Amino acid sequence: MATNKDWICFDGALSDTDTAVTPVKSRGLMYGEGVFDTLRIYSGRSLLFDSHYRRTIEGLQSLGIAIPDYLSKGYLKDAITKLLSKKRLLETDAVVRLQFWREGERGYRPTSSGDFHFSIIASECKSTYSNPHLVTVDCRRTPSRSMPSEFKYTNGINYILAAKEAKEQGGSDALMQTLDGAIAETTIANIFWFKGNVIYTPSVNCDLFPGITRSIVMELADRLSAFKLEPGKFNLNSIKDAEAVWICNSVRELLAVKAIDKKKYITDDQRFIDIKQKFENYRDQHLESL
């Protein structure tokens, strides 16, 4: 019998991890061909699920993966709900990861054939996350012209190598740059920083993954008359003389950065606290039941 932590959803059915099997002839396994998404569920409610769903579908289409007719937004919501209920996670915050891939033959040139598969895993979300210490790494962000950065492709080797390098330096995450030295993102989050009343953040021209939480923060910042939002291309000197730095993603929401390399930052800057509160208000107003 599977334990509480062992249940997953595989192709729409609940299964324990010892039973669920994916074929060896999986292009997701052989080449990392597929798409995933990670989102936070707030006691059975989600934030901008439509945006997560739309990005997933567009990512699959970009790979030429045929999308089954049954894979509707409602179908995925029901599948997530069943899994969370089985794992007794409907009354707490949970982290949900959805993974999509297809079977197929060896070779880089894809074919239209190959059975479609998906899985969902879930775990309890931490109540708090530690303020990260970012370190700069030699591993650069893959250019968007080589691999479109707006989708979450299964092949995460670029991020894995950067995170490995950061760990070897004693950091909790890597601050990644473009090939020409512009700040891009961390391996798990988008990044912002304050100088005076200006909020800086890398633009989409910096090979970054344009996260959903990033779009919310930019929308909120743009509305605040006390601040000026300035997306653009910035080098390391721009962020290292910042007064406060923070990252954001769908799971950790907004999180102040305590250091980049040897440069330390305060984590209780009032401007950051105000932005964080604005985000939390937005979140609470836009949560929807699965």
UniProtKB/TrEMBL annotation:
Q: What biological-process GO terms show up in the record?
A: carboxylic acid biosynthetic process
Q: Which EC number(s) does UniProt give? A: 2.6.1.42
GO MF, one term, reads:
branched-chain-amino-acid transaminase activity
Q: What class of enzyme is it?
A: transferase
Q: Any idea what this protein is called?
A: branched-chain-amino-acid transaminase
Q: What is the lineage of its organism?
A: Bacteria, Pseudomonadati, Balneolota, Balneolia, Balneolales
Which pathway does the database say it acts in? Amino-acid biosynthesis; L-valine biosynthesis; L-valine from pyruvate: step 4/4; Amino-acid biosynthesis; L-isoleucine biosynthesis; L-isoleucine from 2-oxobutanoate: step 4/4; Amino-acid biosynthesis; L-leucine biosynthesis; L-leucine from 3-methyl-2-oxobutanoate: step 4/4
Q: Which family does it belong to?
A: Belongs to the class-IV pyridoxal-phosphate-dependent aminotransferase family.
Q: Reaction(s) catalyzed by this protein?
A: L-isoleucine + 2-oxoglutarate = (S)-3-methyl-2-oxopentanoate + L-glutamate; L-leucine + 2-oxoglutarate = 4-methyl-2-oxopentanoate + L-glutamate; L-valine + 2-oxoglutarate = 3-methyl-2-oxobutanoate + L-glutamate
Q: Which InterPro entries match?
A: Aminotrans_IV, Aminotransferase-like, BCAT-like_C, BCAT-like_N, Class-IV_PLP-Dep_Aminotrnsfr
Q: Which Pfam families match?
A: Aminotran_4
